[in-house]
Amino acid sequence: MKKSIIGLAVVTAIPMFSTMQAVAAEDGAQSIEKIQVTGSRIKRSDMENASPVTLIGADDIKAMGATSIDSVLQKMTATGGAMTNPGVNNGSGGNARIDLRGLGSSRTLVLVNGRRMIASGTGAASTVDLNTIPVSMIKSVEVLKDGASAVYGTDAVAGVVNIILKDDFEGLDMNVNSAITGEGDATESSFDFTVGSSFDKGNIVIGMQYTDRGKAKQSDRDFSSCPIAEGANGLNCNGGSPYSPGGHIWQGGVIGDVNEDGSTVDADGNPVTSGLAPTDDGLGGLGGLHPYTDSDLYNFAPDSYLYTPMERLNLTGLASYEISNDTRVFTEFTYTKRWSQQQMAAQPVWFDFKYNENMGDSLLGQTYVGKVDRNGDGLADRDADGKYITDTLNYAYGDDISYGRRMSDTGPRYFEQSVDTVRAVIGAEGFVGDYSWDVSANFGRNDSVDKTANLHNMGAIQEQITEGTFNPLDQAAWTSEDFRKNVYTEVNNGGSQLFIVSASVSGEMFELPAGYAAFAAGVEHRQEKAWYTPDSLTAQGLANDPMVEPTAGGFDVNEAYVEFAIPLLADAPFAQNVELSAAIRAFDYSTFGSDETWKLGLTWKANDELMFRSVVSTAFRAPTVSELYSGNSPSFERVTFPGAQDQAEVTVGGNSLLTPEEADTFTAGIVYEPEWFDGFSMTIDYYKIEIDNAIASVNEQYIVDQCLATTANADSVLCQSANIGMDSTGRISFNNQLQNVGAEETSGVDLNLSYSFEAAGLNWKAGLDTTYLDEYVVTVLDDTVDYAGLITSNIGGYADLKSNFTLNAAGDNWDAQYQARYISGMDSYSCIGKDTCYAPSTPTVIYHDISGSYMINETVALSAGVNNLFDKQPPYYTGNNDSNTDPYTYDVLGRRFFAGVNVKF
């Protein structure tokens, strides 16, 4: 458009993960294009912002050998917690998520070209799967590390990731990339092309990217080749599952767990305490019935992926056309098709049956140490100290048998996802006088089919046992052709849909002594819905696990916002420019009603070298469709309790009465670019985020400690709703649905140093990006934990210090880059309060990466690099997540080589 394309703002060369600095105009430009920076909707002629914004360029992405943007964003020092990535096999669903400040991916808003991206992935997705963003089409990524609900609405609590696509590209750009680890696995190949053309009144850009990522297995690395257990003599491979091939018959029956009438309280109304005799683990069936020992534990590592495979196709189209000097229409289209897989050990199954003559005499003569009920009251007898009285007992016909088995007879579980995500935007923008305006419609839809193969119809198996047509004690029966009829593939369907209509206007209002006051205002109507339909057998609870209920629901919201930029001082002593920014957004949700959120910001530019900035704001996160309407389903979480299995069966689900999370955010920082040190810049920013009314489930271990380890809290609301119990196999089960019962508070400091200089005939850029985490305090009910400096078993790590150092050197036709990533040591959450712990902490970990590129000519360029140059292995810690480490935090692949060819016309 002729009124905007007069001059061009130019971003100076910035090292990877550097904070945005002020932008200078090119010499000779008649005027400066007004641009919009993430964190504000006011178009302006510079990029000075009260909020800290980090810029990642296309060259930075290429230097890391990245074919997916998640592998770049997750290395930022401002990230943490449980960021789903290809190293997460159990429960990842093939998704990739970003988690700013470790506050959870649902509290980071992802935009594409400044507009919301459709929630994507498997099931009733509620966050953005970064696989839907084609790396080859990315011009830059702006990461706002501040609350921005007043500007963008819900979810912008920890910050905003705005991915800007190449909408003005001309020519042809093709890339072929490949990668492989030092172990020869997890191969990756990618091909992409981008073609663009400009004509008299418009521009069109089309892009395609195809990526094929291979697998690695846990058995392919020494650190993950078996599940590690801690013993008196150190670490050993006895950390496997008690659900073992050949079957496991647990001793003790159900005496002591329930009364004869099946109730869980005794005659006085006190809960019946569960417990197992600690001296006997029952019988193992592999190789013939025998007393169960550690040698019967099942090593599930060989069947589990360490790095998950995926195929992905991204198609992108962007176009614009000037219908007049003052009006332009535009459109954006993206489509992603993803095929992803995970693999886990064969399904563990468990059930109870009554031993009878039709099952043979293999159990007769077998003994076990078990609890006894000599007085016949249906409860296990205890001695004067309250301990169970045990005796050596013989199995007999009529006994109730608790049986578990690892179904290696039918093979490992295969998880597959097929996900289609489409996003289309159409709109118009232009000028009316000196005011700019835009209107747009944004539609997105995500459809997924996920399958799990080699599951077993336990309802049918249980029925066959009752009818006497299947004998679980006959090993041959489990591998017979008739038994194969009980094996099935679970097929689930899910999806989400987004529709937004929005309009905005911005411009200058009036002139003040210090400059022009500017504003932006707009309205938005948004509709969201999501759904999940489980497999019919799963929905009926016939798949061994409890039944999974469907999810279906939606909401709509109307919003209006206004934002101001008010210049207060200009060209005054120690106040070259002082500006106040303010924003307020009102919203009305169909699910919970109306409210508002606001922001106040101040930039104080003392002179050409020094600027102070600060923002105070409120933010909110509305409950998602999944959180509101998700049906109940089982989740298996790690807990510790004497005599219990290490995974509890937890029923989770949504709550239609949820209300929004509310947050107060504060940032304050300094930008320093000294004239005496040419090429150097520094930013330092303090942040603090406080979240109230947080949507959370209670910590699983807390429920066990409060409701199972003691009977004192049996009548509490928590324990009544949890309905906790433990069966004779030591499996704990309870309910833990979402509630507004939490509060979170985090604070820390971001430091960025950048230096560009010339030496030895080369152009150099050095950058240091560091985040210090002072606190991350999570409170649910009266359970409070400060996760700063801790690493957990299920929500990742919260290192109190993370730092990235980058050094880049460039000649006329080549460049080379070195990067070091520092993650400070962390203490294991599982070791808190314990006098002894084998591996109570992780060491400091530093990864070294190198890369370079060479331009053969103006058309062809080569690139190559090595990530994790020194093959640093991930650390072991007590209470680890998976693969004996934390794949959310650490690199599980080891040394990885990548190379690529770029062709431009």
From TrEMBL:
Limits of the TonB-dependent receptor plug domain: 47-160
Keywords linked to the UniProt accession: Cell outer membrane, Membrane, Receptor, Signal, TonB box, Transmembrane, Transmembrane beta strand, Transport
Domain TonB-dependent receptor-like beta-barrel: 384-869
Signal sequence extent: 1-24
SUPFAM superfamilies from the UniProt entry: Porins
A Pfam cross-reference name: TonB_dep_Rec_b-barrel
Domain of life: Bacteria
Topology with respect to the bilayer: Multi-pass membrane protein
Gene3D superfamilies reported for this sequence: TonB-dependent receptor, beta-barrel domain, TonB-dependent receptor, plug domain
Compartments, as annotated in UniProt: Cell outer membrane
Protein name (record): TonB-dependent receptor
